[in-house]
Design brief:
The chain is mainly beta. The protein is built from two helices and ten strands; from the N terminus they run H-H-E-E-E-E-E-E-E-E-E-E. It has helices at 2-22, 41-44, and strands at residues 47-57, 62-75, 78-87, 92-101, 106-110, 114-123, 126-137, 140-152, 157-166, 169-180. The longest helix is centred in the N-terminal third of the chain and has 21 residues, at 2-22. The radius of gyration is 19 Å and the shape is globular.
């Protein structure tokens, strides 16, 4: 009887782990192919943009809230996006993206806190990025994979949802609401 209980417990643990690991994203770029307006990151973020956002952990708890001030600058073939984050705990963080268009609908991005190169692809009103970020965690750094979706609502507003994972396990989601400043 105890062997049966141990097996049932192991099946339960494996099922719970599978739920946490799978947390898959069902969005596909082709689903946005005919959606308007067409989202071009180098056009939307040119100039000044602001955002507000939050991080919700995998259990549904809001862990952090923040605002972002951004400025996009076109420099020859590179698009520079400077981001200044201000968190609700008073921490301030700066990130400078260098984004290069590599094809009609593809992009590459680099930043000091990105491991390797961020890869982006757009379709219709959506852009999907994949990258690994060196995230401050306590007194150290944790490398976290991002599946980052930006969806243009209209000429002024973009919604962003980024899923964070470590070892294939979903840690939580970052939600941002961008507003183009004119």
């Amino acid at each position: 009887m105890s062997v049966l209980i141990v097996c049932m417990r192991n099946v339960l643990i494996a099922s719970i782990l599978l739920i946490f690991v799978s947390g898959c994203n069902n969005m596909k770029l082709e689903d946005f192919a005919n959606k308007k307006p067409i989202f071009k990151i180098e056009e939307y973020f040119l100039g000044k943009t602001t955002a507000s956002g939050l991080f919700i952990d995998r259990l549904g708890k809001v862990r952090r809230q923040f605002t972002v001030e951004m400025e996009g600058i076109q420099q020859e073939d590179n698009f520079i996006l400077n981001e200044t984050f201000l968190y609700n705990d008073g921490e301030e963080e700066f990130r400078r993206w260098e984004i290069k268009k590599t094809g009609e609908n593809t992009y590459e991005g680099i930043s000091d806190d990105i491991i390797g190169v961020a890869l982006g692809e757009s379709s219709g009103n959506a852009l999907n990025w994949h990258y690994t970020l060196k995230l401050k965690y306590g007194d150290g750094i944790m490398n976290v994979k991002f599946d980052d979706w930006m969806i243009m609502q209209d000429e002024k507003n973009v919604f962003n949802k980024a899923t964070m994972k470590k070892f294939g396990i979903r840690l939580g989601d970052v939600y941002l609401f961008f507003t183009k400043q004119k």
